[in-house]
Amino acid sequence: MDELDLMMINAMQLSPRAPWTELAEPLGVDASTLSRRWAQLTAGGSAWITCYVGPSQLSWGGMALVEIGCAAGQAEEAARRIARCPHAVSVEITSGSRDLLVTVAAVTQQAVTAVVLDVLPRVFGVQWVRTTMIVRMARDAGSWRLDSLDPGQRRSIGEEQPETNGQPPSLTPHRELILALGEDGRMPYSELSHRTGVPSSTLRRRIPDLVRSGRMTIRCDTAAPEAGWPVHVSLWLDVPVGRIGDVCAGLAAMPETRMSAHVAGGASVIAIVWLHRLEDLADWEHRVASAHPEVSVVDRAVSLRSVKRTGRLLNGAGRAVGHVPMDFWADPAPDV
Fold first, then answer.
1. Cα–Cα distance for residue pair 303/259, rounded to 1 Å
2. E strand or H helix at 274
3. How do residues 89-135 score in pLDDT, each as one tens digit?
4. d(CA 232, CA 262)
5. How would DSSP label each residue in 188-236?
6. Torsion of CA 268, 54, 321, 271, to 10 degrees
7. pTM score, two decimals?
């Protein structure tokens, strides 16, 4: 990617549905050029904008990290089949003691349980499943940002931070809207209105309100290797109970950290980081140890291949080549 590509993606991370006319001045390029370049990025699978239920809206048990062991030589086929599941948000083939790492989400704990107990163990090639429940998300990957814009550009574009005001988890009335935006987060209001049956004028008010309240996340993502972040590592951390909140917040503030969460499992905290080089992992861990000497790393898993990320099927280069709706309301079906 060139400098303009990276700036556009950074701008889309800040304001995913901003009109090109509003971005032209901060980025120093005319609106028609931005529109054309974005079309090229999305057509090639180098960038995309998706939408999903805000993590704060999933009640206890609504999200889990699932480690999976596979029969020899079956990890890729198992990952491909699991990626078809609408509750499998992301699927990674990893190093270490597990073959796959899958993020599972649903609007109810019962649905997550069904996926973990009834769906995943029946997938061809799967030999064992180990589940870690997410207690609280300190940082969702949707808030991770490139650093391609200067402070002045970021201020000009602006970014509305979600409010964590305890909105009720039920988003069923907005299911069709979230699924449509999951397919294309910049879908025009006219098409959204056709898909959902909701007037465009209502949608212009409703979408910002859902994002602002944290009930819905609209997220710009990218082919990580092309953006300069080819190394992805998941780390399980042992943290004293009284320090979990502070440590999660500290991890979330680190620029390489995509996700940090309090979990219930063999470790108390998990973090997912993106790095420029694998050698940078030692530096990240050193900074964590310096800031939080009471923390120890229990395990690490390096992603060998990202098969699916937030509903997008990825090829070996990390580019989006397909879409599986993240339908957290769907009935888990053991047919993957």
1. 15
2. strand 269-275
3. 999 999 999 999 999 999 889 999 999 999 999 999 999 999 999 99
4. 19
5. -HHHHHHHH---HHHHHHHHHHHHHTTSEEEEEEE-HHHHT--EEEEEE
6. -20
7. 0.91
